[in-house]
Design goal:
By secondary structure, this protein is mainly alpha-helical. The protein has 22 helices and no strands. Helix 2 packs parallel to helix 6 and helix 13 packs across helix 16.
């Protein structure tokens, strides 16, 4: 990978595409300089970000990048390449590194050309007074003004923009090459052109989901996607749409790599790291799926975890993290089989002792799930504990502790429900039915459970966000009931998988 990356650097310096890109950038920069003549209130960074930081130029850059990617698609699936690399995944990595090196050289050339054209206006250490004036407006304009809200040094904005664009180009290249290596050539050919087209249309405001600029420091939900955010970090920060765009691109990259891995003969094995990754993904959707978060710590957590008090999306989003943890356990129990359980029981000495150890492990998993949610909440809304005055920050710690207890109690309740279903029925059939029933019954707009609702699921009433304890601690009571029922079953019945295996065994 490293060797192919440096090889790409050399190709980028010698291929004729570099001078063509420089000529294009010089033409664009000269055109922009005539439209925006120099003034005492501006400097070189204003013109630089007007040209380079324009998402319209980013869309054009992606469309031009489709040409070298298309030429590399046939090479990555060629038998000679596969024999030399040893696997499709390694071939994709080598070609992606080579193309990334070429792209880096060309993008740096383009940025340098724009900076040379803008340099006569003065390369100040800081932003111009005009940019600072626009940055203080609400909402700020795209371009240098949007960067000035977050970064004090223009050179830091230049580096951020360069890394941002390179990451987008590398991921799009990896997606196309992985699909081509997996045999999906038609899909691979259209990935980069479609991305460039969507980015260009979004930059011109031609898509049906334009997002208005967001207040400073806020982000939009993950399903609010603006393709222009992939090539312009200033626009992404200004509109708050970066989570949705990068989440979509990351999921596409992961899906293409899984397809390639399967084509190489790999099989997806469940393990601790995969489980943690799935939990983190569910937590990201839960926390970043909310809209703007602001206010007191109680109001912030009520926005992040509305549960049954929110709309259907907020309700499902709140349930997602505990349900994913329970589904992972259900999958683990379904694939383990009766032989595994019998081995565990023989090692422990009885079903009761095995149950005690399992309950402890479930409690640890519930705590891990709560910690994942808590860490993501702190990343998403650090003002929960950094609020002023100091008393507000201390109160935020108490709110986070209650939220962690609620997530832990809800997860533990669902884990015990999974174990109970596994004990009495075939879990691969019982859990999907129980999952659907639980989700439907827990939403009051479908079925009103009245006073039982707080004991069924997690949820915070935004209208009464000061009362967190009853809304979050309710699942503890059914969790204790399920643990008691499992204790009785452990003394009176053998688990369903073991009972079925013993009935089918020859006498």
């Amino acid at each position: 990978m490293r060797r192919s990356l440096f090889h790409g650097f050399g190709q980028g310096l010698h291929l004729p595409a570099g001078p063509v890109m420089i000529a294009l950038m010089v033409a664009l920069a000269l055109a922009a300089s005539t439209v925006r003549p120099p003034s005492p209130d501006t400097n070189a960074w204003d013109l630089y970000f007007v040209v380079v930081g324009n998402p319209q130029f980013g869309g054009l850059l992606i469309l031009l990048w489709a040409v070298p990617v298309a030429r590399a698609l046939s090479r990555v699936a060629h038998p000679d390449t596969l024999m030399r690399s040893g696997s499709r995944a390694r071939a994709v990595g080598e070609v992606t590194g080579e193309l990334t090196g070429r792209a880096f050289v060309h993008v740096v050339m383009v940025c340098a050309a724009a900076l040379v054209i803008a340099a006569p206006r003065g390369l100040g250490v800081g932003w111009s007074s005009q940019v600072l004036g626009h940055a203080s407006a609400e909402p700020a304009e795209d371009g240098a003004s949007s960067f000035a809200q977050y970064l004090d040094l223009p050179i830091a904005a230049v580096l951020l923009h360069l890394l941002w664009v390179m990451l987008a180009l590398s991921l799009l290249t990896a997606i196309a090459l992985a699909l081509a290596a997996a045999g999906l050539t038609r899909a691979a050919r259209v990935i980069v052109p479609i991305a460039g087209t969507l980015i260009t249309l979004a930059a011109f405001g031609a898509l049906p989901w334009p997002d208005p600029p967001a207040p400073m420091g806020t982000v939009s939900p993950v399903w609010s996607i603006d393709p222009a955010s992939l090539v312009d970090p200033g626009h992404a920060l200004n509109t708050g749409t970066w989570p949705g765009a990068w989440t979509l691109l990351g999921l596409l990259t992961l899906a293409s790599l899984l397809v390639l891995w399967h084509r190489d003969g790999g099989r997806l094995q469940s393990g601790p790291w995969l489980s943690v990754g799935v939990l983190v993904a569910a937590g990201i959707i839960t926390v970043w799926g909310a809209g703007d978060v602001a206010g007191t710590p109680n109001e912030i957590v009520a926005t992040l975890f509305p549960g049954r008090f929110g709309d259907p999306i907020g309700y499902v989003r709140t349930l997602l993290l505990p349900l994913v943890a329970a589904t992972l356990v259900a999958h683990y129990l379904s694939v383990s089989g009766a032989a595994w359980h019998l081995q565990q029981v023989l090692r422990r000495g009885s079903h009761t002792r095995w149950l005690s150890v399992t309950l402890v492990r479930f409690l640890v998993l519930a705590v891990i799930t709560a910690c994942v949610g808590l860490i993501l909440v702190l990343i998403r809304a650090p003002s929960v504990i950094t609020a002023e005055p100091v008393q507000a920050g201390s109160r935020g710690l108490g709110v986070l502790a209650i939220v962690a207890l609620g997530l832990c109690a809800h997860t533990l309740m669902l884990l015990l429900l999974v174990l109970l279903l596994w004990w009495v029925r075939a879990i691969e059939y019982a859990w999907p039915v129980a999952l659907g029933t639980y989700v439907v019954l827990g939403y009051p707009a479908i079925v009103s459970l009245g006073p039982i609702a707080p004991f069924m699921s997690l949820g915070i009433d935004p209208g009464h966000s000061a009362h967190l304890w009853p809304d979050l601690a309710g699942p503890l009571i059914p969790a204790l009931g399920l643990a008691l029922a499992l204790g009785i079953l452990a003394r009176t019945h053998i688990p369903y998988p073991l009972h079925t295996a013993l009935e089918g065994a020859p006498s």
